Amino acid sequence: MTLDELEKIGTTERAQQKQFAHHINVCVAAGCLSSHSDQIKDALDHEVSRRAMESWCQVKSVGCLGLCAAGPLVAVASQNVLYRHVKPDDAPEILKPLAKNR
Ligand code: FES
User: Fold this and answer.
1) For the chain, what are the domain ranges?
2) Which atom of ligand 1 is nearest to the CA of 64?
3) How many CA atoms lie within 13 A of 59 on its CB side?
4) d(CA 32, CA 24)
5) What is the pLDDT of the chain when averaged over all its residues?
6) H helices of 1-102, where?
């Protein structure tokens, strides 16, 4: 892969990311996954869909966020918020402030 190809991939990815007002990052690295963070990701995906927020709110699985002992972790970059010890039932509360700030 050439540098030009990498730059093109980066440009495309940045353009795709700009369509979302909010990026919700769910840690699915070993520590958080052992506390079922995959179920949190599923719950957030379901709630985003239920609220019809798919076009402007993205839920992503990400690697270790560095505070494993506080996991499962969910980071909302646009709000500068890091939720710790998250449970699937927390999904509606995490999304509530985002629904107001499209
Ligand atoms: S494994 Fe989730 S913060 Fe490290």
Assistant:
1) 20-100
2) 4
3) 23
4) 15
5) 94
6) 3-18, 30-33, 37-50, 91-100
How far, in whole angstroms, is CA 100 from its chain's centroid?
A: 17
Ligand 1: distance of its center to the CA of 18 in Å?
Answer: 26
Question: Which superfamily is assigned to 20-100 in CATH?
Answer: Glutaredoxin (3.40.30.10)
- pLDDT tens, 5-45? 999 999 999 998 889 999 999 999 999 999 999 999 999 99
Is the Cβ–Cβ distance between 22 and 98 less than 8 Å? yes
Q: What is the CA radius of gyration of the chain?
A: 15
**Residue in 34, 68, 82, 85 to alter for ligand 1 test, most ligand atoms within 8 A of Cβ:** 68
Q: Which amino acid is at 45?
A: D
